[in-house]
Protein: DUF1453 domain-containing protein
Organism: Pseudolysobacter antarcticus
Amino acid sequence: MTPQALLPLAFIPLALFAVYRRYKRHVGRQPMQPVRLGLRASLMLVLGIALSISAWPHFDVLESGAAGLAFGIALAIAGIRLTQFESTADGIFYTPNVYIGLGITVLLLGRLLYRFVVLFPGMQAAAQANDADAFSAIHKSPLTFGIFALIIGYYVVYNIALLVLSRRHAVANSALV
């Protein structure tokens, strides 16, 4: 095997760790961490803007991105309504809806796994043939771009809503004291 063929295999442990972390964020009670939530929302927003700008000439991809964004926002609204908040002496906690969070994770992982297993060998050969940009592959798949837009829309809206609702809980708790 060539070093280029082994490179994707090196990312498997990193990907498994990321899946584990994502799982832990969607299951069970989570402490409210406003700085992290704001940072995640900001990073996802910047990523979404960068992907949209890079996809600008591909209108079919932008259409699927708009649809994915709309579904992501709708899922975030449903998710925030199903999120339970709890105020204790240790701080404010929230319990996200497991099914929505894990559903989005499975959707992303399924699509990435499909692209890796089925399409990666062909993309690697094409990239070596004409030295194409590695990120240009996302513009060739409206479905993948739509799923990324769904995830970006979900996390931006959900994290911002968590920030707003955590401030309301903090104000309500300080009024009770």
User: Anything to note?
Assistant: Residues 3-176 form one domain. The first helix runs from residue 3 to 10. The mean pLDDT is 82.
